[in-house]
Amino acid sequence: MNLYIKNHTFHYEMENLVRAFFPYEKIEVKKEYDTLEEPYVLTACNGDISVTVNVNDFDKTAVATLTGDDVADELKMAQLLYSLLCEKFNTTLPWGLLTGVRPIKLLRRIMEEMGESDGLSYYSNELKVSDKKKELAVITEKAEREILELSKEKSFSLYISIPFCPSRCNYCSFVSQSIEKAKHLIGDYVDLLCEEIRITAEVAKNLGLTLETVYMGGGTPTTLSSSQMAQVLKTVNDSFDMSTCREFTVEAGRPDTITREKLLAIKDNGVTRISINPQTLNDDVLNIIGRRHSAQDTIDAFNLARECGFDNINMDLIAGLNGDYYDSFVDTLDKVRELSPESITIHTLSLKRSSTLNMENIEVDIGIKNETTSMLEYSQEKLLSDGFVPYYLYRQSRMAGNLENVGWAKKGCESLYNVYIMDETHTILACGAGGVTKLKAYNKNTLERIFNFKFPYEYNTRFDELMERKDGIYKFYKEHF
């Protein structure tokens, strides 16, 4: 698919909108050209705004006239392009023109600028968000706002990366390595990670920062042994002022890595929330996606966590997995509901660039018409009736059905960290390979990033070089506080 850009700078938004309708196509953006090669979309601003869609048997142009001092109008162009693509496919997208990651943050900003009534009208009429998604966005925004108000000027959260997994799931693009290939790295990695945690805590102390949440993710943190897990968690407790910490989460993640000893090590070191993530409770689908455990293993791990005293457990599911269908997904969700976790996160399959699904061209239905929409509608109906509230929501490129990921929780069991990281509310100090420190200026849009090395072997061999980057935290706070 060729996307031609003429006399405007909106190529990024136009590309994302085209990709929403053509998720399997490689989009070639062309700003310099002599001829138009089919199939193509032409977006131009030359006195008027015009959009042409020429795909197979569909060849139409839409035009909008610019008035007054307008020299360009991104919204008008997007509306023209959207209307033609909807006509081409005889459908609409649930989130309309929105292609960004944070539709809830956008809604909040619009309502702050326009007022609630006019903002919601703009969300529907101008951005073309469906009534169902607007309703979901309104409920989610309210729950988010209550959490955001807890964050103060010097608040921050801590992220700890454990980039190892027992095996790589075919939909995953995270920088994680299987235990078989990376086992020899783990011992040194844990020791250096603890050193980085201590150094980061010293930075936070010197700057007078207030710790709100801790999140240990991955990868799969429970690939560590119970003693290694205890070592890392004890280092956090010994290094930071935990008296202000509202939430301490560990992604236990894969049930095939969970043991009583690891759970007790987590519990004994002050962790208040864990995730046990089945993704599906269909054994055939688990095999297809590369999981080395059964549905019963997930149920057993959940019950074991309850025995060990965990009273705030999240479970992740994915709608749209290859090999999974509506009835199978419904069966999974109903079984998870019977377990009664405190929160359930419903992800929609995203065909990520570096995933096995994409690299090996495995066929997956992520088109704009598929069963995934029904899966999410069922989830919303049942979870709302069970007393769950949507408290954070985000979107990704090339998602099945052009849908969303939603965190659902019982009141008081929301993950604060998930809201803070998604809203970009305050600074996130990250430790470990693949971690990204995000430095946020209070009540400003200013955001700077400091990247750790992606891979464990780099982290282990270039640790001193990495620690020099911590000076950037001091520099940022000197400039903005």
Please tag this protein with its features.
single chain, 481 residues, alpha/beta, Double Stranded RNA Binding Domain, pyruvate-formate lyase- activating enzyme, 3 domains, nine-stranded mixed β-sheet, five-stranded mixed β-sheet, 21% strand
Furnish the topology, listing elements before pairings.
Elements: E1 2-6, H1 11-21, E2 28-30, E3 40-46, E4 48-55, E5 58-65, H2 74-89, H3 103-114, H4 116-125, H5 131-148, E6 155-162, E7 164-165, E8 177-178, H6 179-207, E9 210-218, H7 226-239, E10 247-253, H8 260-268, E11 273-276, H9 283-289, H10 295-307, E12 313-319, H11 326-339, E13 343-348, H12 356-359, H13 372-385, E14 389-394, E15 405-409, H14 416-423, E16 427-431, E17 436-440, E18 447-451, H15 456-461, H16 463-468, H17 471-480
Parallel strand pairs: 1-2, 1-3, 6-9, 6-16, 7-8, 9-10, 10-11, 11-12, 12-13
Antiparallel strand pairs: 3-4, 4-5, 13-15, 14-15, 17-18
How would you portray this structure in words?
There is one protein chain. The protein has three domains: 2-89, 2-Layer Sandwich (Double Stranded RNA Binding Domain); 103-143, no CATH class; 148-468, pyruvate-formate lyase- activating enzyme, CATH 3.80.30. 42% of the residues lie in helices and 21% in strands. The chain has helices spanning 11-21, 74-89, 103-114, 116-125, 131-148, 179-207, 226-239, 260-268, 283-289, 295-307, 326-339, 356-359, 372-385, 416-423, 456-461, 463-468, 471-480, and strands spanning 2-6, 28-30, 40-46, 48-55, 58-65, 155-162, 164-165, 177-178, 210-218, 247-253, 273-276, 313-319, 343-348, 389-394, 405-409, 427-431, 436-440, 447-451. It has a nine-stranded mixed beta sheet, sandwiched between helices. Strands 2-1-3-4-5 form a five-stranded mixed beta sheet, covered by helices on one side. β17 and β18 (447-451) form a beta hairpin. The radius of gyration is 23 Å and the shape is globular. Mean pLDDT is 92; it is low at 354-359.
